[in-house]
Amino acid sequence: MARFLVTGGAGYVGSHVVLALRERGDDVVVLDDLRQGHRQAVAAGAELVVADVGDRKNLTEIFANWKFDGVLHFAALSLVGESMREPLRYMAENLSNTLWLAEAAVKAGCDRFVLSSTAALFGLPEIIPIEEDAGFAPVSAYGESKLMAERGLEWADRVHGLRSACLRYFNAAGADPQGRLGEDHTPETHLIPLAIDAALGIRPPLTVFGTDYDTPDGTAIRDYVHVTDLADAHLRALDVLKQGRSVRYNVGNGNGYSVLDVIRMVGEVSGRPVPYAEGPRRAGDPAVLVAANARLRRDTGWSPRYGSLEQVVRTAWTWRQKHPHGFDGVAATMSATPVAESAMASP
What we know:
This protein is an alpha/beta fold. The chain has helices at about 10-25, 55-65, 80-85, 85-110, 140-160, 190-200, 225-240, 260-270, 295-300, 310-320; strands at about 5, 25-30, 45-50, 70-75, 110-120, 165-170, 170-175, 205-210, 220, 225, 245-250, 255-260, 275-280, 290, 340. Helix 1 links the parallel strand 1 (about 5) and strand 2 (about 25-30). Helix 2 (about 55-65) packs parallel to helix 4 and helix 8 crosses helix 10 (about 310-320).
């Protein structure tokens, strides 16, 4: 049985990865300050430490208390728009927290590190689908901060032998097919939950930013990868790192769907129309972002189990129907076994 430290493990993608690790039989320690995460999202049997990943004293104590076989790092600032208002904060926090965590792992003799990275590294790509070796040209401070974090990990490998897997997400979407977990952000910025909430009348009508792109229906096209498939990719990346080499993977379905495709699918799945209005393009939004995922498939045997847009939307709809207020009011854990919250945790 292996033990892993998961930072941001109470958040959207992190909680799905923790659940997958627990179901595989691994021990998990979750480090999360709960600014965006939810206690209720932490899988039963995981140890929860409520603390700031940027506090080096916390990291020293955690690595002294447990011996880890690997680290999975999800805790980060991740709002593109906010990053353009506070670029220095994003670059400083996302880079420094990654490097302090990597340093703590190196000192403790932990040699596997998985980074939650992003397709925002590629900016406005000219060739679709996007290969891992496409040129980097971030158009947001968020993308730049993740690019710097990846480069820091390259040096940690070169100098200290810390093997890292950087997974460049495209659009994480959907919810646990068994309904145990879902998407609950404040603020919510992702299209599918916003469309669902608009259909439910929880939020005002959507704004479709740009209807004049060079795409079949004029709206932007994105690659939506189901969060459960994304979690599976993380477990497979951990296994690749056992081979003693660092890797970089683009993680997406390899299929693109437009904004209007998503709106239509939410309407079909929910049986409710999605109200929306047309708006101008947002600066820096590419017309099309679709992943080339051949390297991940070849190296790990990964393939999407929930690859259709209908599957993605249906799981998200089921979660939101059952939890119209997100995790508010949800029991503290997903089973009768309580989450063990560390005595060293600080509120």
